[in-house]
Structures are given as structure tokens and as C-alpha cells.
Amino acid sequence: MHPYLLLTSSLIAIARLLGQPALAQVSEEAPLTVGARTVPVPDTVSPRLRQLIARKYVNGGTPQTPEGWRALVATASSAEVARVPSLKAQFDVEVEPKLIAGVHCFIVTPRVIPARHRDRLLVHVHGGAYVLFPGVAATPEAIIMAGVSHTRVISIDYRMPPDFPYPAAMDDAMAVWKVVVTQQKPKNIAIFGTSTGGGMTLAMVQRAKEENLPLPGAIAPGTPWSDLTKTGDSYFVNESIDNILGAYEPFLAAAANLYANGRDLKDPHLSPVNGEFKGFPPTILTTGTRDLFLSNTVRVHRKLREANVIAELEVFEGQSHADYIIDATTPESKEAFEEIAKFFDTHLGR
Amino acid sequence: MHPYLLLTSSLIAIARLLGQPALAQVSEEAPLTVGARTVPVPDTVSPRLRQLIARKYVNGGTPQTPEGWRALVATASSAEVARVPSLKAQFDVEVEPKLIAGVHCFIVTPRVIPARHRDRLLVHVHGGAYVLFPGVAATPEAIIMAGVSHTRVISIDYRMPPDFPYPAAMDDAMAVWKVVVTQQKPKNIAIFGTSTGGGMTLAMVQRAKEENLPLPGAIAPGTPWSDLTKTGDSYFVNESIDNILGAYEPFLAAAANLYANGRDLKDPHLSPVNGEFKGFPPTILTTGTRDLFLSNTVRVHRKLREANVIAELEVFEGQSHADYIIDATTPESKEAFEEIAKFFDTHLGR
Q1: What does pTM read for this prediction?
Q2: Tens of pLDDT along A44-73?
Q3: Is residue A257 part of a domain?
Q4: Counting one residue from A and one from B, how many pairs have CB atoms under 8 Å apart?
Q5: From CA A346, how far away is CA A344, in angstroms rounded?
Q6: Please, where are the H alpha helices in A165-233?
Q7: Nearest-CB residue to B7 (from A40, A58, A290)
Q8: Residue B302 to residue A317, Cβ atoms within 8 A
Q9: What ipTM was estimated for this complex?
């Protein structure tokens, strides 16, 4: 420990002699001032991940109108859709659209499914700040997971704002959930997703509990957007450090309000960290040390552990938000998905 | 996900069309420049922990001479020793000195030990940058753990520089280990410690493997000083954010060199993150989002998981280095030690 410890310990000891609590002297509200500095690219990650970390944050703009959002969604989708052919080849899967309970979905089927995975199913809820990546753009993470875990995945192409704000996305996800649990033992089904998909994974379990629906056998919320307000230490500490999200304002704030459509952002149905975690299935959480959502992730982990839920936390060195799905060629991406696949192997029924 | 993703995805897509890797354009070595800013005290932790987080880092000085180090050690010790009476009362334990294999130790005995813990033993290696907290000053963490886990603890008062640099501390710890494994089933014994104690916990297991000694049944390295060089992203990202350690330079650098006494700091015996993790016992690691040693902790977690070891990671919101032992009255401190006690309950033999 550093001499700081001994000085504060001394302060406490002196204060005790004086019959006063030493800490009361310090204003709780005084923010920490951190000077300007440079942060090198870490040499404790793979060369490929170093390249991702070395990239500068790019502000893609924050639309002010429904038309602006639609244009942004279109641009974003075409870029994600462009990844799909090579991902399908890399992970050796087929992708087919399918309507389930009237909701657009994609069935992602690995070419090789071992016998022990044939009665299992993974349900995927994609990320994108509740507004990006409709259609085929939803599928990259589902493709990676299907390929790494050799398990069939249903990816839910839920409705989104500006046309369909809350609760459309959650209603679609729950409609699909109600169907799949009649087709497969719920204990054999996992739900997973990253960012918004991680938040929805948590909210789906909470809503299934509220509606007395069966729960999945395991879940994997990746760096979940568990708090739609700017609450949590890493929103501040990792601001301008995370080169994917950058900061809460203005984009995430705007997307949260677009989705909430006037609802209180603190509502547990929108910010599931404020909800109840008792009785959750085994959960594996993934994040990175530079992730703007590091606190969104570890706060959920602590709540799960306080509720005595089996909950594993994986924190990857140097990664910003969702780096593990943004480039599926890093060894760290492989490792992150393999951890989740192993976790499902351990905790899902057969 | 943020529009950044779509822009970089577009870049990649365009580069693919051109037959070039998009990322090659970006210099890997360019550091990130982060402007000055203020970081508020988070409201996502207990009121008492808020007070700890609100405190400013105090530079206690870095001695230049052996006499300077001895003076610092004396001041630091008296402050830690002053905590002991109230900790003994809070956790209802007795502390007795005892020589084991010629090494000064303390036996910490909870007044109440349930039957299922009577054949268990926890071995404690204290923190303090390999130079601070000899004697009774070593015992606070041992007292907390004994009280929370209701298990007997042996705390090793290992020799330290400036008089006894490496390998004295490790030789003492291993001498004690060789004795205790003859008195209790090794699978019923855990090793734990924080900071330097966490690094030594890891190094002890690696050395036990090298020397074909029995391994413990579980270990709990808390925010381990696993890399004595300034290697790992959080040494940079959490510099000036962590209000306990502050930064690597000058204090930690000086302490590392004082301990190493001319040896290469990268030697796995000094920086166990560089060692071998195959065959490790179940391990629980504890750290905080503001911890300067966040990377020291998650890098070890990943190496353990890559070696297929059962390894749990607990990351506490807003905590700097070792906040959970610096004030044993926060609910977060109780939670951290209870997690470790539960982990030992699950994984140690009886």
C-alpha cells in the first residue's frame, strides 16, 4: 500500500483520539480534477486488438429528426450488412429469415451441430442503442455465437424507433420468447446480446418473472446498457477513453430518449439495473477495462451476486465498448465467445 | 452501438473492396490524448464508500535512503497498528504471535468457529509494496477475513527490504507453507492477500508447483501486484483516478526496485503475471473500477481462464486500490470478504 494509506490511517487515528470522525471533514461532493494526459496503446493485448485500440473515436453525429435517424440507420445497416458474407464463411453458418409470432427473426444454423447441442437454442437480441441495426444488420453477433458454440441461434429483429419506441422492442422479444419456450425446454435455452441487446436480455428475464413465464437456463448480457441515465462511475472515468462510444452525450442520451418516448429512463423496464435480480438464471457478463459501460456491467454483476445468482464476470484488458464483436478476428474476440459457449455448456439443460 | 462503429465498418468495407486492410492506415503507436476534466463522486456506492472516494490522493513521499524507508515504515506501521484494537473488537477475534519455521507469524482465531471450519486454515500474506507493514501492522486484513469467514488465519510477517530484499519475503512465505501443509490437508488450506500480498499469493502457488509442493485448495489474490513493471493499461488509464496509489511513479517504481534488488522486474518470481497458471487451484480475484491495478487483476484472471482454472472476478464500482480493506465499515468491504468466504466454503476441502 501507498503512504496515502498511512496518512489517512493516521488522520483516522488522530480523529478517534479527538472523538471525531475524520472523514466528515471532507466534502462528499467535491469532484476529482484530472489534468490532460496521453494514454499509450497497451502492449498487453494481441497485435490486432492493439490496432482497434489505436483508432480514434469518430463522432458520427446525432440526428435531430426522424428522417435524420432513418438516414443514420440506413448507413449503419449497410456497413454491418457488408460484414455478413465473410462472417458466414468464417463461422460456417447459414442464415434464414423467419417470422415467429409475427416478429421478424433470423435462424442462424451452424453447418456442424454436435448431438449434445441439438436440443439447445440460443436467443439473440442485437445491440445498436435501440435504434440501429434492423434486418440482416442484426445478425453479426448471432453468427459469431452460432459458429463458436455450434448451437442454433434465433436472432430477433425487433421493432425500433423512430417509428416504434418502447415498448415495441420488448413486446417483440417477449412474443418470440413465449413461442420458443413451447418448442424447446426453457432450461435448454439461453438469451444473449451485447449493449442494448445485453440490457434487453436482463429486461426480458425480469419481464418473464413478472409475467410468470418460464426463465431461460442461462443468459449472457455483454456490456449491457443496464442504466439509460448517465449513472455509473465509468460513464465519467472512461469518457474519451472508450473509442467506440466516446461519451454519454449527445448520442446515447438522444437514443435513450428516442427509445423511452417520454417514459422515465430510470424505469426498470428501460434500465434493468434498477430491477429485481432474485431468481435469475446463471449469468455471464463481458466487458473491457476501457468500456464506457464498465460500471453498467459490474453494477449488474454485484446485484446478481447479492441475489445469490451464479454470475461470472469477464473483463478484457484495454477493450472499449463491445470490441469483442466489432472485430471477430482478434484472439480476444474468440476467447470472449468461447467463455460464453463454455458457460452455456455448463449451465444449460440438454 | 455508436455511429463510430458504422464509420469504421464502412472504412473496412471500402478497404476490402480496394483489397487493402483498413486498419493498417492507423499508427499503432499513437497515444490517446485526453483533455483535463472533472470526475464526480459516484452515487452508485454506499454513503461511506462515497466518503472514501471523495478523498484526495496524498503523496506521502518516496524515500531515497534505507533510513528514509525505515522512517516511513515506522510511521505507516503505527497508523495500521492503531486500527487493530477496534478491528479485533469488530470481528471478535484473538491475535497471537507465533514462530513457524523460524518466521514471525500471527495466529488470528475467531471466537466462534463452526464445526465445518475447524479443519480449515487460511494463510495470509499482507500488502504494503513489499516494504510496509511489518509486525502487528500486517494483521488488519487477516483479522477481517478471520472474522467474516469464521476460520483460523495464519498471517505471515515476512522479512522485507531495505534489510531483506527478494527472495527473503518469498523464502519466508514458502517456509511457512512447507510447515502448514504437514499440519492440515493442503486442500483444506487457502492462501489470500491484497496488493503485494496478492502478488505473493500467486508467486507462492507458482513456486509450490516448481518445487513439487502441495498446492492450496483455493486462493484469493486481491488486486494483486502481479506486474512490477509499468505494464498494463490501468497503470495509465487510472493514473490520478485511483486516490490510494495515485500513479506508478515514483513510489511503486522505487518500492519495486528496492524489493528486486537488481533482479529483472519481469522475472515471474517477482511479476507472477509472467508465470505459468496451469494447474492453479480455484481462484477469486477482487478489484475496483478505479483501481490502478485493475489491469494487474484482469490480466491474471484471463491467464487463469486460458489455463482452464476456475477463476472468479469481482470488480467493485468506483473503488480505488484495496478500498475494501482500507475501511472495514463499508457494506462493500463486507460484501468483498463475504464473496471470498463463500468461495472458500465452496472450494476448500473439509
Answers
A1: 0.94
A2: 999 999 999 999 998 889 999 999 999 999
A3: yes
A4: 319
A5: 5
A6: 168-183, 196-210
A7: A58
A8: yes
A9: 0.93
